[in-house]
Amino acid sequence: MIVKNILFLFTSMVFSCAIMAQQKTIPNDTLIVTNHKVTINNKTIPYKASTGTQPVWDEKGEIIAALHHTYYERTDVKSNQERPLLISFNGGPGSASVWMHLAYTGPRILKIDDEGYPVQPYGVKENPYSILDVADIVYVNPVNTGYSRSVSTGDVEVDTSKFFGVNADILYLAEWINTFVSRHNRWRSPKYLIGESYGTTRVSGLALALQNRQWMYLNGVILVSPTGLGIERDGAVEAANRLPYFAAAAWHHKVLQPELQAKDLDVILPEVEKYAINDLLPALAKGGFLNEVKRREVASKMAYYSGLSEQSILRNNLDVPVSFFWKDLLREKGFTVGRLDSRYLGIDKKEAGTSPDYNSELTSWLHSFTPAINYYLREELNFITDIKYNMFGPVHPWDRSGNNTGENLRQAMAQNPYLKVLIQSGYYDGATSYFDAKYTMWQLDPSGKMKDRLQFEGYRSGHMMYLRQEDLKAANDHIREFISNSLTEGKPAKY
């Protein structure tokens, strides 16, 4: 229940709010604070929400961008010295922070059904599983996402290369985080980064940049539906790694052979993973020199585990593209399956073809997220502006060169004995598959000396596994446990 006591700290905030509503500009540096309560695990948690903009400065001290963010702090604690701080990013790379903000860790979540589908009237409700009981959270929108924008100086055009690239993104966000932590007196707090999708590339690079450039050491990094982090898995590895995801999606849609369909998913997936690594990968590595008997044997086994026909697999030379899988799995039933979450169904103009017409899951999500974030920021947090909230903003061309973020994370872990990593993936995610996430984890530390600090958790949903209520609870509980297990009060940082 929101406390109807809106706190405007300064008269200038009221004035700036009116200006924002009249012009398509946004202040570079402003903050609006409101007080609220939420019930988490049957306990009432009072908190304040601070939402506004904080500048990004260049090397000359000129403001070059203003990042919109929302910061939640529990208010019934005497001191935040020992209270963890979670800094949250989404991906894209042009995506706003709305997804995890209004559906995962925050105190308010979307009004959706238990499986994650939109319902009307749109809006938000209390999140009974939010981690606000154990950590304060700030949701950050990088440049051109959400309400965040670059700022031109006089007649000088904005240099987007300062923002739009793997390493540029990490560099300016590390500086921004330093300023945020200083402004809010959080230097003594245990600190965590969480990123989803491309956000995992972002936070993996930030782990080392914060450590080596800002001298800010973390207790944990949480990777939700991670990307490859610059770790190579091309060719036969990439093709073989798809099969466990194929099996999960096919099992969900009940198109596997009866004897396999009768097994639980937790039984099937280890079996398919073992086949993918031990049998399929060596076979694919032989390419066109694989003998015909073995080729047909592999096609038969792939069909058994994927729900596709042997003929479709052979026509793709055993290397089945994921886009073809989304189109072909339920072709005879007249549906496509979603890319980011293959539980979702789509309808194409033609049943023929090699890929779906659209991403059925994303259109479903935008149904509920877009009205909710626009309503929530304006009417509940009182941040009023005529600037458009960019669910996906213009950030291209994005410089993807020099992506060493997986190695950055490994270095940060090696240098910081406190640093632990949690990986969370949905089994039905066809864009950043759970088995690719496992493979990335295996390759992250080739020495194996830090594997006890790497943890993987899987869920029976997709890219945003928290949209399914059962997984929302489980995934937040896993973060709670991860934070608890990575707090190191009184323990020296040494090997």
TrEMBL record:
Q: Which Gene3D superfamilies match?
A: alpha/beta hydrolase (3.40.50.1820)
| Highest taxon of source | Bacteria
Per UniProt, which keywords does this protein have? Carboxypeptidase, Glycoprotein, Hydrolase, Protease, Signal
Q: Name one GO molecular function term.
A: serine-type carboxypeptidase activity
Supply the InterPro entries for this chain.
Answer: AB_hydrolase_fold, Peptidase_S10
Pfam families hit by this protein: Peptidase_S10
Look up the signal peptide feature and give its range. Answer: 1-21
According to its UniProt entry, the protein's GO biological process terms are: proteolysis
Record-linked PANTHER family: RETINOID-INDUCIBLE SERINE CARBOXYPEPTIDASE, SERINE PROTEASE FAMILY S10 SERINE CARBOXYPEPTIDASE
Protein name, per record? S10 family carboxypeptidase
